[in-house]
Specification:
Blueprint (H helix, E strand, L loop, with lengths): L1 H38 L2 H27 L5 E3 L3 H10 L2 E7 L4 H16 L4 E6 L4 H6 L4 E2 L1 E6 L2 E7 L12 H10 L38 E2 L5
Parallel strand pairs: 1-3, 2-3, 4-7
Antiparallel strand pairs: 2-5, 5-6
Length: 227
């Protein structure tokens, strides 16, 4: 027991030392920044202020442009024709191919509604798979729900069913956010190497595709109806 206590003490000291070192680095960085500001003359300070104001103005203009193109809310589009128009307008698009009778589509809706408000740099859409047979065939959409992740007008990736989301109906919004971050279709600030569900099962960042199932001879498969 004494040996165990000693190793705990050593570990604690190491951790304390690491925390102190980190704090020292942050403090030195702040001191350097303050010193830099102190040494600036009025012209330099004014120039810095102007640059910051311009960056802020540009950021606001970008935000307004996104909102004018329908970003910031999760919307349903009525037809395949609308899909092509919407995708042409925006750099990053997430489109949920859904079906009314598939319960898991409602779960996906709930999370996408939250993410659309948070990530206004990306357009979030939904399209009824039964009203878009051409697109479903072209994009090879067989499992419902499927998210098509589109960058610069090209479909780069798919989230098929819930396989990449921890294989559970109870996945969190953070898990879906991480998965979209992996596809670089949103600005993700977390660590891509650490999926939020890795405590359940270690997935890393390699994904598996959902197995196909035939449901009542439909052209779609559903990963929820008959589970």
């Amino acid at each position: 027991k004494m040996a165990a206590d000693t190793s705990v003490d050593i570990l604690q000291k190491v951790l304390e030392n690491e925390i102190l070192q980190s704090a020292k680095v942050v403090e030195e960085h702040l001191d350097a920044e303050i010193q830099k500001l102190d040494q600036m003359d009025e012209d330099e300070l004014e120039h810095l202020k102007q640059r910051r104001l311009e960056a802020l103005k540009k950021s606001q203009q970008q935000k307004q442009e996104w909102l004018s193109k329908g970003h910031g809310e999760y919307r349903e589009i009525p037809s395949e024709r609308d899909f092509f128009q919407e995708v042409k307008e925006s750099k990053n698009v997430v489109c949920h191919f859904y079906r009314d009778t598939t319960f898991r589509c409602q779960i996906m809706d709930k999370h996408l509604t939250v993410l659309a408000k948070k990530h206004i740099e990306t357009k979030f859409l939904k399209l009824n798979a039964e009203k878009s047979p051409f697109l479903c065939e072209r994009l090879r959409i067989k499992v419902i729900p499927t998210l098509a992740l589109i960058k610069d007008g090209k479909t780069q990736d798919y989230v098929v069913g819930f396989t990449d989301l921890g294989n559970t109906d109870d996945f969190t919004t953070e898990t879906l956010e991480w998965r979209l971050g992996c596809a670089d279709v949103i600005n993700y600030s977390g660590n891509l190497m650490e999926p939020p569900f890795q405590s359940q099962k270690k997935y890393g960042t390699s994904f598996t595709k959902l197995d196909k199932k035939t449901i009542r001879g439909k052209i779609y498969d559903s990963d929820s109806d008959d589970d």
